Automatic annotation (TrEMBL):
Alphabetically ordered keywords of this record: Autophagy, Coiled coil, Protein transport, Transport
Compositionally biased residues, Basic and acidic residues: 769-785
One of the record's GO cellular component terms: phagophore assembly site membrane
Protein name, entry field: OLC1v1035416C1
Annotated Polar residues bias: 539-552, 752-763
GO biological process, one term: piecemeal microautophagy of the nucleus
UniProt region (Disordered), positions on chain: 533-557, 726-818
Domain of life, per lineage: Eukaryota
Residue span, Autophagy protein ATG17-like domain: 148-480
InterPro entries linked to this entry: ATG11, Atg11_C, ATG17-like_dom, Ubiquitin-like_domsf
């Protein structure tokens, strides 16, 4: 079926529309601007499916009535539209009717008869007569075969049509199933997300309910720090009210069970939906048409066989016809006699009768069986499609119901989370308390570092001030010789920079006095609520769940928030590890590490309270443990390498200390030898003093470069505070810690020489260890050694300040002082040895802390790896979003270009319509025609190849309109001419009509006269045949004749019917010509009277030769006219007169 529904718009293509319920197809001629509603209205007229019940699908798109076909890319090659009847998808819809196959009945030809004349029937030769008989039979065979072949072709065509409809229905079911699969996958993914979130929430809530008692006992056993204890607060359980939480547990448990039952019921419903959907998707319509196409191809051989037989029959008919024609014309060859021809036709006849025609009938039966088979398959497919669409409708309804329930369960999940949030408080008290203690430690360490850095800043500013003062003094020293002092004073050049006081208002004075070791004492890990394995791997395990939809946002938000909470040490990250007054670099680093460790403990506690290690899946736990084992092995390897490095450093320091001890012993021996000999006492005294000074300097240097780092690392943090406050409160004097050069200048030449003399003989054992130490240490330690060496230079200048030479009387006193100095050196050596052993023990403890820090660092590195993975994922998402944005941008550009083209075309069409409107509104028909013709001519001259189809169509329409308007104008002129001629003819006809009226009046008057004459011929006496009689309607309802002699003449019922059947009411009188008169009499009993029929000849008044019969019979079966017994009456039959018309009177 084809229909042009474009409403005059240029056709763009054909739109195939297939009906799913029966497989019928339509080819609609339409364009891209045709509305879907127009398609639906046409399909309603062609399929009897209401518009409201129509569902049009093209691939995965549903066609909306208000949209044009261009919205869906239609019409387009390769795209089909399928029509589904929503009324058939309802559960109470009736089953489809059985398929009706209509085949045009082609009857068999009639059997040839000998009555049909043939030219050879009159032949004297029997062979020629037989030849005529064979021709009749062969023609009959051909016609019979042609009828069979035509029926077979009709059946095979119907079978192929049914097969095509089956294929259409199969594709329709695939489209419907694919459309359902799209929504089913969406709802299935929503269900999986819901199930995953619910399972995680369920495990978390079960964990909270199950371990509530354990958490309460743990809080009871966890005593509060002594500084925080009060009569009402002894343990952590006192932070909350236990009774309230036990009531909350009961409410949560009841709500948890109810919600669990609801979810189980919902899971059963969804399981039923899943089974129905999977069963539907597994049901394919291909089993109904499988092998049918092959069967159709195999049955083509029957058609081919019938074609071959028909060719044989046609050839035989032509052969016998030729023989007959030759016989009639006498052109038979001498060698072929009629008897021979007849004998040759006999086997051909037998072949037709016994082989060809039975084969054709057998082929027809096979095709009939094929048609029945296809019809059965079609009926099965119709029922299958009906049931399949009803299942789809049921599944769609279930999906919609499940979708509504999802929102309800999402809200229930949120309420469950809010309700169980109170129980999480019990679980989070322990980690929060441990995190608070760690925060106290971190703040104390940060405060010490902050104050130490302030002291360092004060010292640096003092050094800058000293340099500025020295520079000003040198300037005045040079220029005061030339410029008077008062002038310099007036210029302000005698002013000096003021002292810089760095004062910090004390803060964090109310912090608990606890250290890093007190955290595990007051808040051990096993009381926090998660194991050490959880604390070490909690962050990594938590981040492994970052891909889970239920926790990813939570974790990312937590990870983003925690650095903001614990980034108070960022101001130390960029600073160099330089000495602070009274401290060393390693002590500064120790304080930083202590603060960082406390920060990480607080971070782990905060994360552990939000994420639970037990909620991870077993596979994730195994992968986390495997990764943790690998990272732990790597960390242990790094720790062993670091231990080896530290042991090597300790060995080098031990060698250096041994060399110092050996050198000290040598010096002691030399001093003792010098004392015993007593030679050159004055020189020896000075030498001894310089040696002692050098020894002290070397000891100080060895303390700094050898064990100073280790010793400074373990100084109390309070020394840092004391040192800072001392340096900030004493107003550091300029030049006091930095007068090494001036002190060296103040020494006399003898002391300088002796110092140089003593420094030269020092062996390599005093220098090499320092050089080795410098090679091992980094640049920061060199700066520290330089600073401390400068400080030692000040201490050297103090004992050598006595420049006057000593007398001989003071030598005994000096000897006693030398002994005291030796004793002091020995005690200092012992003290340094003990400090060295303490440093070794503390170094071992520090190695343990470093290993612990290494583990924490590894955890942080894994956090960073997870963050990098998330960043990569975000980058991928960003890349995909960018690609999608580019695609959308290109599509928008393409749409914009299309819109621009359409707008330009619309503007051009608007201008053309304006010109057309101007033509239409021009006054006068001739001017309109002329302007329209000129417009068409101008448009034809301005044709451009780049114009679109709409403009070209408009040009063509204007041209056609101009031509047709010209034709109409010519027709109007012709019509006007014809009208003028018709008016003249009408005038002539009016004259003729007047003449005819006068003639009619004359004839009417004549007719009235004749009618009056006829009335005068009515017989009122004796009634005879051919006379005119008048009958009136009496009170009894009969027509009785007007007669002066007898009143018993009645009109027969046939005559009454003749005169009254065409009238609505009976007329008051009837006038007619008598054709028959029957005489009757009324008797007593009709059953006892013998019927006698007499005939009497009565001469007529008009002609004596004419006679009529008067019937004389006994009484009738019934006394119709109400006459007395024995009375005679006459029944008269009359005919209608040609000039008499009876008009019925109007109803009263």
């Amino acid at each position: 079926m084809s229909s042009n529904i474009s409403g005059g718009v240029v056709q763009m293509g054909k739109l195939p529309v297939h009906i799913a319920e029966n497989g019928h197809s339509f080819q609609l001629d339409c364009d891209e601007y045709t509305l879907v509603e127009a398609i639906q209205r046409y399909l309603e007229s062609g399929t009897a499916i209401q518009v409201n019940d129509q569902l049009l699908l093209c691939l995965d798109m549903k066609l909306e009535p208000a949209q044009p076909l261009s919205t869906y890319g239609l019409p387009s090659d390769g795209r089909e539209v399928f029509l589904f009847n929503k009324a058939r998808m309802r559960s109470n819809s009736p089953s489809p009717p059985a398929e009706k196959v209509e085949i045009t009945d082609i009857p068999d030809p009639p059997v040839p008869s000998s009555h049909d004349h043939h030219p050879l029937d009159d032949a004297t030769d029997p062979a020629l007569k037989a030849l005529a008989l064979y021709e009749r039979q062969f023609r009959y065979h051909f016609q019979f075969g042609q009828a069979i072949y035509s029926r077979t072709l009709a059946k095979i065509d119907v079978s192929e049509r049914l097969f095509r409809e089956l294929k259409v229905q199969e594709r329709a079911l695939e489209i419907a199933a694919h459309n359902l699969d799209h929504f089913y996958r969406m709802i299935l993914q929503n269900y999986k997300d819901f199930e995953k979130f619910y399972s995680q929430q369920h495990r978390r809530h079960v964990n909270l309910l199950t371990n509530f008692g354990r958490d309460i006992e743990r809080l009871k056993a966890w005593k509060v720090c002594p500084q925080l204890q009060s009569p009402n607060r002894r343990c952590l359980l006192d932070f909350v009210k236990e009774e309230n939480f036990r009531k909350i547990v009961e409410d949560c448990s009841s709500s948890h069970r109810q919600f669990e039952n609801k979810v189980l019921q919902f899971k059963r419903e969804f399981g039923e939906l899943k089974r129905n959907a999977e069963h539907l998707f597994s049901s394919k319509a291909s089993f109904l048409i499988g092998g049918l196409e092959t069967t159709l191809k195999e049955h083509q051989r029957y058609i081919n066989e019938q074609k071959s037989i028909m060719q044989t029959l046609s050839k035989d008919v032509n052969t016998v016809k030729k023989l007959v024609d030759d016989s009639l014309t006498g052109e038979l060859s001498s060698s072929l006699r009629p008897h021979d021809a007849v004998s040759a036709l006999g086997p051909m006849y037998d072949t037709h009768d016994k082989n060809c025609l039975p084969k054709m009938q057998a082929c027809d039966r096979e095709i009939s069986n094929l048609l029945d088979f296809c019809r059965d398959k079609k009926n099965e497919m119709n029922i299958f499609v009906h049931n399949y669409m009803q299942k789809i409708a049921f599944i769609q309804y279930t999906i919609k119901d499940v979708r509504y329930k999802f929102s309800v369960f999402q809200e229930a999940l949120k309420r469950q989370s809010d309700q169980f949030e109170q129980l999480r408080i019990v679980r989070g008290i322990g980690p929060a308390y441990r995190a608070c203690l760690a925060e106290v430690v971190r703040r104390r360490a940060a405060m010490k570092l902050y104050m130490g850095m302030a002291g360092q800043m004060a010292e640096r500013l003092a050094m800058k001030r000293e340099d500025e003062v020295r520079r000003r003094e040198e300037f005045l020293k040079v220029h005061s010789l030339y410029v008077p002092r008062d002038v310099l004073t007036s210029m302000g050049l005698y002013d000096n920079p003021s002292q810089c006081d760095v004062n910090i208002t004390p803060f964090d004075t109310s912090l608990l006095d606890i250290d890093i070791a007190d955290i595990d004492r007051y808040a051990p890990e096993h009381l926090v609520g998660f194991s050490s394995k959880t604390e070490k791997q909690g962050s990594r395990g938590s981040f492994s769940m970052s891909n889970d939809s239920s926790h990813s946002a939570e974790i990312e938000e937590s990870v983003e928030d925690f650095p903001e909470r614990f980034d108070s040490l960022e101001f130390l990250e960029g600073s160099e590890l330089v000495d602070i007054a009274g401290t060393s670099k390693i002590e500064v680093e120790n304080a930083k590490l202590k603060a960082e460790l406390a920060s990480k403990i607080a971070l782990i506690c905060s994360m552990g309270s939000e994420l639970d290690y037990e909620l991870l899946d077993q596979n994730k736990v195994d992968s986390l443990l495997k990764t943790a084992a690998e990272k732990t092995t790597e960390a242990l390897t790094l720790r062993e390498e670091y231990e080896k490095q530290l042991q090597h450093m300790l060995k080098m320091k031990q060698i250096q200390c041994d060399s110092y001890e050996k050198r000290i012993k040598e010096l002691e021996q030399r001093l003792s030898d010098q004392y015993v000999q007593g030679n050159n006492l004055s020189t020896d005294d000075e030498t001894l003093k310089l040696t002692l000074s050098s020894t002290k300097t070397d000891d100080s240097k060895s303390e700094i470069s050898g064990v100073g780092e280790t010793h400074m690392q373990h100084l109390s943090a309070d020394n840092m505070d004391d040192t800072f406050f001392a340096s900030s409160s004493r107003n550091v004097k300029p030049g006091v810690p930095f007068k090494h050069n001036k002190i060296n200048e103040g020494l006399d030449e003898n002391m300088a020489d002796s110092s140089g003399t003593l420094n030269q003989p020092l062996d390599s054992s005093m220098i090499d260890p320092q050089r080795d130490d410098g090679n091992i240490r980094d640049g920061e330690l060199k700066d520290s050694d330089a600073g401390l060496s400068t400080s030692m230079a000040v201490s050297i200048s103090k004992p050598s300040s006595a420049s006057p030479p000593k007398t001989t009387g003071e030598q005994g006193l000096d000897s006693s002082k030398e002994d005291d100095l030796i004793l002091e050196l020995r005690s200092a050596l012992e003290e340094k040895s003990s400090q060295l052993s303490e440093a070794e023990s503390k170094l071992i403890a520090l190695a343990d802390e470093v290993s612990k820090f290494g583990r924490d660092l590894e955890t942080n590195r894994k956090l960073l790896d997870e963050s990098q993975m998330n960043c990569v994922h975000l980058e991928n998402c960003l890349h995909e979003a960018r690609k999608e944005a580019e695609t959308n941008l290109k599509a928008a550009d393409r749409k914009a270009s299309e819109y621009s083209a359409v707008r330009a075309s619309a503007l051009k069409l608007r201008s053309l319509f304006v010109r057309l409107k101007t033509c239409v509104t021009s006054p006068g028909v001739a001017e309109f025609t002329e302007s329209l013709r000129s417009l068409a001519q101008s448009l034809a001259n301005s044709v451009n190849e780049n114009e679109n189809d709409d403009t070209a169509n408009f040009h063509e329409c204007v041209r056609v309109l101009a031509d047709r308007v010209g034709i109409l104008l010519r027709q109007r002129a012709e019509l006007h001419e014809r009208c003028s001629k018709a008016e003249s003819k009408n005038g002539q006809l009016a004259k003729e009509l007047e003449e005819k009226k006068e003639l009619v009046n004359t004839l009417y008057i004549k007719h009235q006269h004749e009618k009056q004459a006829n009335k005068e011929k009515i017989s009122f006496g004796r009634l005879e045949v051919h006379e005119i009689a008048a009958f009136v309607h009496n009170s009894a309802g009969h027509y009785e004749a007007i007669n002066r002699n007898s009143s018993h003449y009645y009109l027969s019922s046939e005559s009454v019917a003749l005169f009254t059947d065409h009238l609505p009411n009976r007329p008051p009188y009837i006038v007619g010509q008598i054709v028959h008169i029957e005489r009757q009499s009324v008797r007593i009993a009709p059953s006892t009277v013998d019927h006698v029929r007499d005939r009497a000849d009565v001469p007529t008044s008009d002609a004596g030769s004419s006679r009529f019969s008067l019937n004389n019979s006994g009484s009738t079966a019934s006394n119709t006219y109400g006459l007395p017994v024995g009375c005679e009456y006459f029944v008269v039959t009359v005919a209608m007169l040609p000039d008499t018309t009876i008009h019925s009177p109007p109803p009263s």
